[in-house]
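call fold(seq) -> tokens
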Amino acid sequence: MATTATTIATTTPQKLVPFLLLAKSSRGAAAADLAIKAAEAPGVYSFAELLSVPSIAALEASHPPVHRALSLFAYGTLADYHSQLAANAVPPLSPAMLHKLRLLTLTDLAHQHRLIPYAVLLDALCLADESAVRDLEDLIIEAIYEHILKATIDQQRRELLVESAVGRDVHPTSVPLIASALRQWAHNTDLVLGNINDRIHHVKSVAAAKASAEAKALADPSSSSSLARGGGKHKHANANPSWAAASALPGLRGFFA
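ret:
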């Protein structure tokens, strides 16, 4: 199902603020260590703002593996990590970092699907041991308590029904695509509004023409009097059958005489 889940509106996370402040005075290895700590820190799920700090952005040249690892937490998923790990592009993640990347991958899936089968979740989150289902449900419950996901677990159907999910960072390369989609949406909205305005104008024109015709009919004495005369005769003839019978009596009397 391709329905995208609703995004929970957020501001700059308070738990990220200390790392932003420390990053301003950190350089080189200290900045790399700070990036790793931010990725491990509980409650921090947004990293684009940290990546934009000059000292952290400089890690792309001085410490490429660390910078790529931090970028995974901003824009990537568990599958991206395994792909880059196989290519020796990123260092192995600590258990805490791996757990957080699973949570972020879960929110990424929640943005793509409203109804997610357990099989899809288990595969995407690389959960395959005997306790996989229990681990998956624990992960979902944690995501709900962390307010990064609103969803309902259907254990009988083995599905996750997504209501909403926290927004992830937007990669700079995705901005033109988003802008294009917004422009298309604005264009379509203008067309719909124009169509609605045309229909409103048409309805008002029809109503005005009808009101004008009725006003002219009421203002024309000959039209109204002729209608009244015609209606009166018709009514009189139909409404008084005794008079019609009495007027016919002389003829009937002559017939029987």
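The longest helix spans residues 175-219.
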